[in-house]
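ugh ok so i messed up the first submission bc i forgot one of the chains. this is the corrected input, ALL of the components this time, i swear. 630 residues overall. if the numbers dont match what u have on ur side tell me asap before i send this to the collaborators (the ones from the other lab, u know who)
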Amino acid sequence: MDFPKSIRIHEEGPREGIQIESRQFSVTEKAALIEALADTGLKQIDCVSFVNPKRVPNMADADQVARAIRKKPGVRYTGLWLNQKGLERALALPLDVVGSIRVTASETFSIRNTGRDIAQTFDEQRLWMETYRKHDVGLEWGYVMTAFGCNYEGEVPVARVLEMIARIVDLAAEFEQPLTGVYLADTVGFATPLDIERRIGAVRERWPELKIGLHLHDTRGTGMPNVYAALRMGVDQFDSSVAGLGGCPFAEHKGAAGNVCTEDIVFMCEEMGIATGVDLEALIDCARRAETMFGHVLPGKVMHAGSLARFREAA
Amino acid sequence: MDFPKSIRIHEEGPREGIQIESRQFSVTEKAALIEALADTGLKQIDCVSFVNPKRVPNMADADQVARAIRKKPGVRYTGLWLNQKGLERALALPLDVVGSIRVTASETFSIRNTGRDIAQTFDEQRLWMETYRKHDVGLEWGYVMTAFGCNYEGEVPVARVLEMIARIVDLAAEFEQPLTGVYLADTVGFATPLDIERRIGAVRERWPELKIGLHLHDTRGTGMPNVYAALRMGVDQFDSSVAGLGGCPFAEHKGAAGNVCTEDIVFMCEEMGIATGVDLEALIDCARRAETMFGHVLPGKVMHAGSLARFREAA
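and heres the new structure output, hopefully the right one now
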């Protein structure tokens, strides 16, 4: 066992949660949720995505939201782009543009999700790298989507994941940009904790210098055990969503499932002595606020049960 | 890592789920759910509890339910009693009475939950042991409730848990009954996977011959990581509830939380090569049936997302 002393969370709730919701939220509501999250101690918050407003009506006002947020020093407010046009929108806004390379290990998923196959995706990434250079944006993470499995292709071989990482590493080297690490994304909820151990092990064996991050969805109940398996291996970088936002298994989004839940991760880590830098009680308040805002039950657990603080005080 | 080759599940949904629900179900509905569960390959199903019908109206017809179930050979249909009177009711019914010793590590919780302190509880257990002997009922498991923490007393020291197990072991020896093992019950959702590792480690060190079982509630999102941590230590005996029944965090039972979810455990285990003997697709059907019966969303994950079988077939 090799727990990290602390973890870093990239909060994705405002983007993942809002983009999938059919109910339309105001710019004020969106900005207020982001501001409340920044007040909990979270240091990086994904605020908006730059996507087709016809497909994702709730992101039509992404620019206004980015401008409306009252920023807190020390917090990074990020956005997600899927193409060069989105990247250019992000660069024109008061957002923290963090350089990334984003590829999908499943050819079919890549085409269905972005309209580009893997080769075309790498061509697009080259454009992004040029844009980062032009705007003096540092590269940080490479992302491998569907790194565990894919609804179209089933199991994604480990060798394919390693091949994608090798190409990411090469692209970063070509542009003489240091790469912080790679995110393995369980985009559609295939991963078990055993897969986490095996795939992280395989990546580490080949690139011991790369950090590893995880983007997990709790589609089939393995989200939290996957986090735990990664913590045991010293992984200290996680994407997650307040209240488990990001495609609710209930009500209108039946079948989809949210990201692993930020406050549940914070609870588990803090209870095990792993620092998160986040005020759990404030984050629980945020999750409850999100539930009120969304108007339906959200999948987070500790937000409904409360932390253990009151029981310890009583005892 | 020391995964078991297979696990045994004690399905608790019909008892845990129905006893907490305010909506009244018919004997036919209850028996039908139990029969459907037995058809999935589950080998032990907790069907009813013998409790005060004024406190738990849905268990007023426990005797009729026990008689109504069409039994399947090779399946054990159990019930839960909390006192001698309940045990005698169970013995008079067509149920599988499995000898157990049940104590609570927290004195306060013991008094609030059963009206008896720990000393009185052991006196009561002695009566049960005499009754088992009289009726030729074999002893199997000792249960330590609140083995991780208590809402009244906060943290429960490991030493207290070991003391309770020592007294259980002594009581079994006094009656010359072999004890299969001990269940550690996280009755109110305090356990983290690190606690699971530490407490199981402490029990194993002192009693390497005892098997260990876990009764977990997913109150704060640590249910599934707790199962995973236990699997890594070779634990192969779990209580769980179909659809995560047992005090829903949603709707009418806000704040309470269900047991770890049977089909989510079955999914995770089977995906990792650990046999469960359960037909996952049939169990998912059962979970969905329970959701229809209960009339509100239940917390299970894989029941909403479906298994991976259809994606593998498509690929």
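quick check: Chain A touches chain B through 54 residues (CB under 8 Å). that seems consistent at least. The two ends of chain A are 31 Å apart (CA to CA).
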